[in-house]
Amino acid sequence: SVPSVLPVLQKARENGLPVLSTVPDSAAEDITTVDFSHGAVTVIGNEGNGVSKEVKAFSDRFITIPMGGKAESLNASAAATITMWEMMK
Q: Which domain holds residue 23?
């Protein structure tokens, strides 16, 4: 079993970092418009279930990767790669 990520997220928040969860939801904030210049912690969910309910409840904001064409979702490694790229821009 994997230990809970919540204590890590709590520590990040205590240090002034917002917690952003990636979700496949067009109502979420488009990742290409997010200002990451002040830092953030992003959570990538797994392919089957996404981000856990507990992490969603803890999240400050929800972000999404815009999808073109017929693709409905990305695997976690692809989502993480795109997210890290956007954070470093």
A: 6-88
Q: Whose CA is closest to 65, among 44, 38, 40?
A: 44
pLDDT tens digits along 24-39: 988 999 999 999 999 9
| Residue pLDDT, tens place only, 29-75 | 999 999 999 999 999 998 888 999 999 999 999 999 998 878 778 89
CB atoms under 10 Å from CB of 73, counted, come to 12
Residue pair 31/83 in contact by the 8 Å Cβ criterion:
yes
CATH at 12? 3.40.1280.10
Farthest-apart Cα atoms in the chain, separation: 40
Domain contains 32: yes
